[in-house]
Amino acid sequence: MSRPLTRRQLLGAGGVAALGLGVSIGVPPLMNRLLPGGEPGKLLRSALPLPARYAAELPVPAVLKPVRSDAGADYYEITARRATARLLPGHDTEVWGYQGTFPGPTLESRSGRRTVVTHRSELPRPTAVHLHGGHTPHDSDGHPLDLVGSAAHHDMPGMGDMPGTAGAEGATVLPQRDYTYPMAQRAATLWYHDHTMGFTGPQVYRGLAGFHLVRDEEEAALGLPQGPHELPLMIADRSFAADGSFAYPGLPGGAPGVQDAYMNGVLGDVMLVNGAPWPLARVERTWYRLRLLNASNARRLRLALDPQPGGGGALVQIGSDGGLLERPLRHDAVDLAPAERCDVLVDFSRYPAGTRVRLRNRLGDGPTGEVMAFEVGSAAGDNGFRLPERLSSVERLDPAKAVNTRTFVFQKGKQHWTVNGQEYRPGRSIAAPRLGRIEVWRFVTDFHHPVHLHLDPFQVLGRAGGGPGANDAGWKDTVDVLPAQGVEVAVRFNDYAGRFLLHCHNLEHEDMAMMAEFTTTE
Ligand code: C2O
Ligand code: CU
């Protein structure tokens, strides 16, 4: 029951039919719309001249302080609001940001210590806040209909028009919500972002995203590079209108979703890192920890340093979505689909002083083929870090112990995107896994879909009948499912009984109904 799918099972309509789902996958029309680099989406060109590369300094989002702490928890307050930011030289950009900044402030939690975040919103539209990668009970998980907003939002024009979302009328809008995160989870790079029904794409695009780091003793004992040597890097593509505002091809009248032409995904032509276009970071000749996050709506990244240092293997991966790997993995390049994280160490002492090392995106071309640069300083600046051979122990979920195998087909429907042939409808649960039991979940598609599960992470068992890919190691919460490939994962939901989401993290697909609910039961 836990054997990986064979290639024949995974390829084409015959394979899907063989799974007994009674659905067929129409491959050809969709495949034609892939861009040359195989990118899922359509490029929206900026209407202003693109800013110079490597002129802006890399910003690092400020760490938010708790408003108070007691024996049991740390308490934070965040207000989402409109603000003016100087992202591009000579232009103002209106952002929708947590605390008015893009990215939002970084939160830091200790593993096992409860974190309570009170969110308020002064935005023109209501918002739902999801902690991506958090092991969070349902009522704090940022369900797309559990909204925060002003009293003026109670009617929410357009909400009922959400395609395939009968039941969106069930939304509740509160002036503030307390999101309680037990943080019973290991150290990892999490991020929080908007998750509003039908509007996640435009609202994240306008800036509603920030880092939330979880730290623990095990990680601290490794003595990883920290302080100025630890850089969270939120990579996101955006396009700009002539006046410097974010350009997003939304529908007229504030209806949810995107224009038809952009249904596969919106790709921007400006690469932002922590909100700055193609920034430059000055680094010392020592080890750095880069927490890479792809916060793009639809763009996939293949990140590599250029030049490669002699001997290659410049990106030393120590962690994935769900925290530390067992051992470091050396890569020349890492792939990151939307929402994926990769925690890498780079030893800049492998480069001569004065080298400009670019972080390239091998899936982009021209401006989108570049991301940022590091200028290697002359100071030795050795922070004393030595790479250990072993990082952590990772429990293996044994697929032979799986009590159930489920298949989820991600494909285009008549008008929108579907999971197992159905558009998202809040309250309709399509799977009921038991807590504490291992299951094998298969994700099958004819297109690119970064598939994300809420609540608990999983382990990739294989792709397209083979083993896991080079970027599938460790605990994952988002996996890049490629056209005509299937991915098989082992998952065990441990923590909380309730209703949770699985969905595609291409935000245009998500808004256009490629989402479903599952219910965990005791
Ligand atoms: Cu990062 Cu349900 O999302
Ligand atoms: Cu998708």
Automatic annotation (TrEMBL):
SUPFAM superfamilies associated with the record: Cupredoxins
Domain Plastocyanin-like, first and last residues per copy: 83-143, 174-218, 410-521
Keywords assigned by UniProt, alphabetized: Capsid protein, Metal-binding, Oxidoreductase, Virion
EC number in record: 1.16.3.4
Disordered as annotated region, ranges: 127-146
Reaction(s) catalysed (UniProt annotation): 4 Cu(+) + O2 + 4 H(+) = 4 Cu(2+) + 2 H2O
GO terms for MF: copper ion binding; oxidoreductase activity
PROSITE patterns: MULTICOPPER_OXIDASE2, TAT
Oxidoreductase recorded as keyword: yes
Pfam families associated with the record: Cu-oxidase_2 (PF07731), Cu-oxidase_3 (PF07732)
Keyword Nucleus: no
Family: Belongs to the multicopper oxidase family.
Assembly and interaction partners: Monomer.
Stated name of the protein: Multicopper oxidase CueO
Lineage, uppermost ranks: Bacteria, Bacillati, Actinomycetota, Actinomycetes, Kitasatosporales
